[in-house]
Amino acid sequence: MQAVIIYLLIINFIAFVMIAKDFSSSMLGGPRFTNKQFLTVAILGGALSIILGCVMLKHMTKWYFLWPFLVVMIIQLMYKDYFIGVLYRLMN
Fold first, then answer.
1. Where do the domains of the chain lie?
2. 2-28 and 80-91 are packed helices; what angle lies between their axes, rounded to 10 degrees?
3. pLDDT profile of the chain (92 residues), mean per 10
4. Which residue from 50, 42, 64 is spatially nearest to 22, judged by alpha carbons?
5. Which positions, given as ranges, span the membrane (predicted)?
6. Cα–Cα distance measured from residue 12 to residue 54, given in angstroms and rounded to the nearest whole number
């Protein structure tokens, strides 16, 4: 179970760093992450950090950007016991 918690902490940290990097790239004109990359990280467990990062940084807060991440997070919360069990079996 400890490995699952560490995994979720790491993936959420990565998700938040991706949003912060995308925010700074949008201001400076650098390369940006695609929505597909954000959605992949959200499906892997980082939906909450993506939503929190967008709200905290006031970056990409339009409903049409955030709704897929809200749906992913709701599904993950509904099936959290199943997802945690799958992750636990994969890591052991």
1. 2-91
2. 100
3. 86 96 92 94 93 89 85 88 81 77
4. 50
5. 6-26, 38-58, 64-88
6. 13
